[in-house]
């Protein structure tokens, strides 16, 4: 089982004793990076993938307010939670912190239990945000690839001679296969496993391929789908089915020797797609 990634916390304070105290409280749970000035903080954020920042307000040079404002203005760092750690307790000080983007506050001297509670809470929120961003990027990738391929391929093929069409399809197959490549390097001799790899790869682009539990009469695994990665374009451009077949073939032969037999495709008027994944006997 894959171990969880340890969250990374950046602690910023110009007083070494404060850094030592925070380090003692947090080092057994988190990966820590230390900075003694606002300028060093900004540099550390550039160099490291930081999950949360504990930021002192009163520092020479750049204050914590200045640092927080700069971080929250940048698209790359605006979603990093900032806990401002300060000896200031006036209401106006907190309002100013909120205005520059602080997510929470701790008052010095820092209470260990309160510190751990606040950090854990904000890390949970950061983790959820990161998951949503990853999903958003995944969907954007699906839509971008689908849009590019469904708009480029028909125009490229419309005036190309037969031999050139084969080259274009082969190039597109290589491109898609490179994008969706996952664990096709792993060793397997089971057509069911190979079929699962094929489904997982193409489903990254928004398809709904699945492997039937039963194999066909020849012992081949059967892949079916009622939604292909090319959307409605597949029904008006059957050539997109050749692209899918090519990618499946590349995935199959990336793990073992075999072939992909096309049974049905929506591009040819069928109500679903059906492919047979057949491996050569050793």
TrEMBL record:
<dbReference type="GO" id="GO:0005524">
    <property type="term" value="F:ATP binding"/>
</dbReference>
<keyword id="KW-0902">Two-component regulatory system</keyword>
<dbReference type="InterPro" id="IPR041359">
    <property type="entry name" value="MetOD1"/>
</dbReference>
<dbReference type="InterPro" id="IPR001789">
    <property type="entry name" value="Sig_transdc_resp-reg_receiver"/>
</dbReference>
<dbReference type="InterPro" id="IPR011006">
    <property type="entry name" value="CheY-like_superfamily"/>
</dbReference>
<dbReference type="Pfam" id="PF18546">
    <property type="entry name" value="MetOD1"/>
</dbReference>
<protein>
    <recommendedName>
        <fullName>histidine kinase</fullName>
        <ecNumber>2.7.13.3</ecNumber>
    </recommendedName>
</protein>
<dbReference type="GO" id="GO:0000160">
    <property type="term" value="P:phosphorelay signal transduction system"/>
</dbReference>
<feature type="modified residue" description="4-aspartylphosphate">
    <location>
        <position position="56"/>
    </location>
</feature>
<dbReference type="GO" id="GO:0004673">
    <property type="term" value="F:protein histidine kinase activity"/>
</dbReference>
<keyword id="KW-0808">Transferase</keyword>
<keyword id="KW-0067">ATP-binding</keyword>
<keyword id="KW-0547">Nucleotide-binding</keyword>
<feature type="domain" description="Response regulatory">
    <location>
        <begin position="8"/>
        <end position="123"/>
    </location>
</feature>
<dbReference type="Pfam" id="PF00072">
    <property type="entry name" value="Response_reg"/>
</dbReference>
<keyword id="KW-0597">Phosphoprotein</keyword>
<dbReference type="InterPro" id="IPR050595">
    <property type="entry name" value="Bact_response_regulator"/>
</dbReference>
<keyword id="KW-0418">Kinase</keyword>
């Amino acid at each position: 089982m894959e171990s969880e990634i340890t969250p990374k916390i950046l602690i910023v304070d110009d007083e070494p004793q404060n850094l030592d105290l925070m380090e003692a409280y947090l080092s057994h749970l988190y990966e820590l990076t230390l900075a003694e000035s606002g300028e060093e903080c900004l540099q550390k954020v550039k160099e490291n993938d930081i999950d949360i920042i504990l930021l002192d307000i009163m520092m020479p040079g750049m204050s914590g307010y200045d640092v927080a404002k700069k971080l929250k203005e940048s698209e790359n760092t605006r979603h990093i939670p900032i806990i401002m750690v300060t000896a200031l307790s006036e209401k106006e000080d907190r309002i100013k912190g909120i205005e520059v983007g602080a997510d929470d506050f701790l008052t010095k001297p820092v209470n260990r239990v309160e510190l751990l509670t606040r950090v854990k809470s904000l890390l949970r929120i950061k983790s959820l945000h990161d998951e949503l961003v990853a999903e958003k990027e995944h969907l954007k990738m699906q839509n971008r690839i689908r849009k590019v391929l469904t708009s480029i391929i028909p125009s490229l093929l419309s005036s190309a001679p037969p031999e050139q069409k084969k080259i274009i399809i082969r190039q597109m197959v290589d491109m898609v296969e490179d994008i969706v490549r996952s664990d096709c390097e792993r060793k397997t001799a089971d057509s069911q496993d190979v079929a699962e790899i094929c489904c997982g790869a193409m489903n990254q682009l928004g398809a709904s391929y699945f492997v039937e539990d039963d194999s066909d009469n020849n012992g081949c695994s059967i892949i079916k789908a009622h939604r292909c990665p090319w959307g409605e374009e597949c029904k008006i451009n059957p050539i997109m089915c050749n692209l899918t077949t090519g990618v499946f073939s590349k995935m199959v032969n990336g793990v073992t020797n075999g072939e992909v037999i096309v049974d049905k495709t929506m591009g040819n008027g069928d109500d679903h797609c059906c492919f047979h994944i057949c491996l050569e006997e050793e």
